[in-house]
Design goal:
Number of strands: 9
Shape: rod-shaped
CATH topology of the largest domain: Heat Shock Protein 90
Order of helices and strands: HHHHHHHHEHHEEHEEHEEHEE
CATH architecture of the largest domain: 2-Layer Sandwich
Distance between the termini: 46 Å
Structural class: alpha+beta
């Protein structure tokens, strides 16, 4: 049984290598299928015609010689495909079939009618040019009709007998059916491929929208806070002794913004083909510190204290820029929905192979229905404690980025008490 299985596997591998002759990675899906179909037709035609040749060489020598010439000619098709001459290979196999079958049909009238119909089918299925299809139709029609309506006699004409005609007709219909079904399977696979590509394009479009949303969010939020502080300074709403500290804070905020923007633009450039994580071992403490600095102005404005209890040695395996985006979105939400004078606590729980990051605020909290729709991007816009508008779309991206890095995210919340986000990453 094992021997038989090995033989079947080896035959399958050999068959696959043969029909993939001339197929390369840089060709289109449709051309790949077309080459495979031509190779498949050539392979099975070679086997069948060779068997016919063995029989004919004894009983009908002239037809047998034509059979073996046809076999040798068809094998050349593989060489043409191997040299990437795909169009010539298609034309070559059609010319060989037409020449041999028309010759046999003239030598032994009405013998190869169904095989000539196969030639016509191949011409219609494989070739796109109308001129080629019409030429093949006319040629096959003449080859079938001439022996029926024009009586002629060649010295080497053969009479194969009624039984042979029945066998040829039955096999011809069988091959014709198999060819049509095979082509139909290729078309079905092509349709499936189109659907798959359409889904990929849709996903890519969504990813690009997210990229633009991230860039807009991470530029607008700190710029708005910095602009507000500049207005305070310009309108002398900040006392003189505090102006220097405010300017230092603005300078620090702008540097952080520039650094984040550089990272975002580089990340966007790398992900124009879709969001793909570039994983590395990263220290959570450093990422949290950078994210907190991005919100220094807003944090001060609302009088909120951000407490980080993350040890400097705690690390995870993930894309550093993607996780920075996740942290900034979660901190943005925590600040937005926190009351003035409250705390935001950032901590971790380490397991054997994972690290759980906790971001807890003492803000407005959420209802059960809000929690249910939190990562769906649906529902009414929510407003922060200072009237800041939130759509929840950022959390859709957060969930996508966390899962892209093999992480999980869940939320615990109670109205008027606060919200805790729990994100688990592999070490």
């Amino acid at each position: 049984m094992n021997f038989l299985r090995k033989v079947i596997v080896q035959i399958s591998e050999l068959y696959e290598r043969i029909i993939l002759t001339g197929v390369s990675d840089d060709i289109s899906f449709l051309l790949r299928k077309e080459i495979k179909m031509v190779n498949t037709i050539a392979l099975f035609s070679t086997i069948i015609i060779f068997i016919y040749g063995l029989y004919n060489i004894i009983h009908f020598p002239f037809i047998g010689i034509l059979n073996f010439i046809c076999v040798a000619s068809i094998l050349y098709c593989f060489r043409l495909n191997g040299q990437q001459k795909h169009q010539i290979a298609k034309s070559w196999i059609l010319i060989v079939f037409a020449f041999v079958l028309i010759s046999v049909n003239l030598i032994s009238p009405n013998t190869t009618e169904y095989y000539l119909i196969i030639v016509l089918t191949i011409g219609l299925l494989v070739f796109k040019q109308k001129r080629t299809k019409i030429s093949v139709f006319v040629l096959v029609s003449l080859a079938v009709l001439i022996p029926k309506f024009y009586v002629y006699q060649f010295p080497f004409m053969e009479d194969v007998g009624k039984d042979r005609l029945i066998l040829n007709s039955a096999l011809g219909l069988l091959f014709l059916t198999a060819l049509v079904l095979y082509h139909q399977s290729i078309q079905n696979k092509y349709q499936d491929h189109i659907k798959e590509q359409s889904l990929k394009i849709l996903q890519l479009n969504n990813d690009l929208k997210h990229l633009l949303a991230v860039i807009a969010h991470d530029i607008h939020s700190p710029l708005q806070a910095t602009s507000m502080m500049m207005d305070y300074i310009a309108n002398e709403k900040i006392e003189t002794e505090n102006r220097e500290n405010s300017l230092l804070l603005i300078n620090k905020q702008l540097k952080s913004l520039r650094s984040n923007l550089d990272n975002l633009l580089e990340w966007s450039r790398m992900n124009m083909g879709g969001i793909q994580p570039k994983k590395d071992k990263i220290l959570l403490h450093d990422l949290i510190l950078n994210a907190v600095e991005s919100f220094e102005v807003r944090r001060s404005e609302k009088g909120i204290k951000i407490i980080s209890e993350i040890h400097p040695s705690v690390s995870i395996v993930a894309d550093p820029i993607q996780i920075s985006i996740v942290l900034r979105n979660l901190l943005d939400n925590a600040l937005k929905f926190s009351h003035s004078g409250t705390n935001i606590l950032i901590s971790t729980n380490e397991g054997p192979s994972t690290v759980e990051l906790c971001i807890k605020d003492e803000g407005k909290g959420m209802s059960e229905s809000q929690i249910k729709n939190l990562f769906q991007g649906v529902g009414e816009p929510s407003y922060g404690t200072f009237g800041e508008k939130g759509t929840g779309l950022g959390l859709v991206l957060v969930k996508e980025l966390v899962e892209a890095n093999n992480g999980t995210i869940k939320v615990q919340s109670q109205e008027k008490v606060g919200t805790t986000f729990l994100i688990q990453f592999p070490k």
